[in-house]
Amino acid sequence: MIRTIIVDDEKLAIQGLQLRLEPFEDIEVIETCANGREAIRAIKTQKPDLVFLDIQMPGFDGFSVVKGVMEIDPPLFVFVTAYQEHAIRAFEANAVNYLMKPVDEDKLADTIERVRQRLSEKRSTEEAEKLKDVLAEVSPESLEGMGGDEEGEAAGRYEKMINVKDRGKIFRVDVDTIERIEAAGDYMCIYMENDNSLILRETMKDLERRLDPKRFQRVHRSAIVNLDQVRQVKPHTNGECFLVLESGQEVKVSRSYRDVVARFVH
Predict the structure, then answer these.
(1) Is the Cβ–Cβ distance between 62 and 87 less than 8 Å?
(2) Is the pLDDT of residue 262 over 70?
(3) Checking CA distances to 183, which of 71, 103, 144, 162 falls within 20 to 30 Å?
(4) By C-alpha distance, which of 157, 136, 146, 152 is closest to 67?
C-alpha cells in the first residue's frame, strides 16, 4: 500500500481528491491536513510514502512544508496547484509530480502510475535534491535557514570562486565580481564588473546550483543576474521589465521570472 497524506486548506478540495483516489486500491489515505503546520507534524510522525500538497495556503504554504521536512527522508510529493507558468516549468524540469486544479481524473491516473514507478526506485537522496532544485527556482526564500547555522550552511553550500577554462588558460573568478551570466548555445558568457568576459562550457542549470540564489537570480531563460549589481528596474510591455545594472547594461526580465526577482529588488 502507498500510505498517503492530503494537504489542502479547502475542505471540499480534500474531499474531492479523496473521492478521485478511491478507485486506486493501492492508495491508502492515512491522514488529511488543513494547513502547513499540521502537514509538517503529520509527515514527521506518520512518515507517509506520498503527499498530495496544495501550494497556496495561508501561513505555511506548500513550499514551507517541503522545507520543514527536508531533514528527514522526504516522501514523494505531488504538488496540487493553480500556480503560474514558471513554477510549472520548474516542476517539469526536475521531474517532480504536479497536478493542476481542478484535478483531472485522467491526469491523476497518469500521476499515480508515475508515483508507483518512482516509489519502486531507490530515490531518497535524489528526491531531496529534486525538491531543492524546485525550491531554488520557484521559492528561493524557502531555502533560507535550512539546517542549523543558517548563514554558515548557506555560505558553505555555494561557491566563492569559480574556475573557468578559456583560451587555453584557467581563470579563478571571484563570484562577487560577476555582474551577469548569459547563455550562448552550449556555453555561458560570464561578464564581470571590470568589463572583462569569459566563456565557460557549462549548462545554465548546473551553474545556477553553484551560485547563492539570494544574490544570483535567473531572470530570463538565458540570463542570470547578480542582484547586488541592480540599480534600477524599468517596466516594459506585456509584464516584462529591464534591470539596469551598475555598468549601465540592461537585462530583460521575462514575465515568467518577474515575481522571483521582485522578492529581492524593490
Answers:
(1) no
(2) no
(3) 144
(4) 146
CA atoms within 13 A of residue 202's CA, in its CB half-sphere: 19
Residue 15's CB is within 10 A of a number of other CB atoms, namely: 13
Of all residues in the chain, the percent with pLDDT exceeding 90 is 26
Cβ–Cβ < 8 Å for 77, 97: yes
- Work out the angle at residue 257's Cα, subtended by the Cα atoms of residues 80 and 138, and round it to the nearest 5 degrees: 40
Between the two ends of the chain, the Cα-to-Cα distance in Å is 49
What is the predicted pLDDT for the residue at 138? 62
Asked if pLDDT for residue 88 goes beyond 70, the answer is no
DSSP string, 186-236: TEEEEEETTS-EEEE---HHHHHHHS-TTTEEEEETTEEEEGGGEEEEEE-
Residue 190 corresponds to which cell in the numbers above?
560570464
> What does the chain come to in residues?
266
Averaged pLDDT, 16-38: 95
Segment holding 147, helix H or strand E = none
pLDDT of res. 212:
86
CB atoms within 10 A of CB 226: 23
For residue 104, the surrounding DSSP H or E stretch is none
pLDDT at 24: 95
Smallest CA-to-CA distance from 241 within 265, 207, 222 is with 265
pLDDT given at position 201 = 83
C-alpha cell at 77: 510529493
Q: What is the pairing mode between strands 216-220 and 197-200?
A: unpaired
3-state DSSP assignment of residue 150: helix
